[in-house]
Design brief:
Elements: E1 2-6, H1 10-22, E2 26-30, H2 33-39, E3 48-51, H3 60-69, E4 78-83, H4 88-97, E5 101-104, H5 109-145, E6 159-160, E7 166-167, H6 169-176, H7 187-199
Parallel strand pairs: 1-2, 1-3, 3-4, 4-5
Antiparallel strand pairs: 6-7
Length: about 200
């Protein structure tokens, strides 16, 4: 899991970095909030972030608000505020700003690890959900292809697809849907073809 750590206090920053790295995660470290925000503009932004509240330029709470107001990632990032602000009003403000969890300094590494594991599970579920939404949107777009104008030859009844390729109706529908075909004879064709054969003189 790629995790961002943003804290302007060197001792805490190095401690958190060392612990998170030892747990097998890729770490991105920032010393101020502005640099942390820039990481979420990259092509592969972090999936989680551990943010200090008080930082130069942009605070951790402001980062939470910014990310929640205008999502810049396909799946929401999991945000943890790690701060010395222990007052109840501060906790409420942090969570209302968009933080998913709130840890008060000083903290125990086991507590931080347990909170990270919760976040990892949630991020994993969000990623699975995003993949399923993409799959549904792809399926819906394929269905919509069958709802538009469909060019069909007036003579041989072949269908032209968006690649300008002509194919049998059965082949076209099989490629663009889950239809399976069972051939039979309609009453009109039965009367014209089958009955007429029996009526021919021997």
């Amino acid at each position: 899991m790629r995790i961002l750590i943003a804290d302007d206090e060197p001792v805490t920053r190095h401690l958190v970095e060392a612990k998170v790295t030892s747990w097998g995660h890729e770490v991105v470290v920032c010393e101020d909030g502005l640099a942390a925000l820039a990481e979420f503009e990259r092509d592969e932004p972090p999936s989680m972030a551990i943010l200090d509240w008080v930082m130069p330029k942009v605070t951790g709470v402001d980062i939470c608000r910014t990310l929640r107001q205008g999502p810049t990632t396909s799946t929401p990032v999991y945000l943890i505020l790690l701060t010395a602000n222990a007052a109840r009003d501060d906790v409420i403000e942090g969570l209302e700003a968009g933080a998913d969890d709130y840890i008060v300094k000083p903290f125990h590494p086991k507590d931080l690890r347990a909170r990270l594991e919760v976040g990892i599970r949630i991020v994993g579920l969000q990623q699975v959900l995003a993949q399923r939404v993409d799959a549904l949107e792809t399926a819906l777009s394929r269905v919509k292809q069958l709802q538009g104008l469909l060019p069909i030859c007036a003579y041989c009844k072949k269908v032209r697809d968006d690649q300008n390729y002509w194919s049998q109706v059965e082949s076209y529908l099989a490629r663009h849907s889950n239809l399976r075909f069972s051939h039979g004879i309609c009453p009109d064709c039965y009367a014209k073809v089958v009955d007429s054969q029996f009526e021919e003189p021997v």
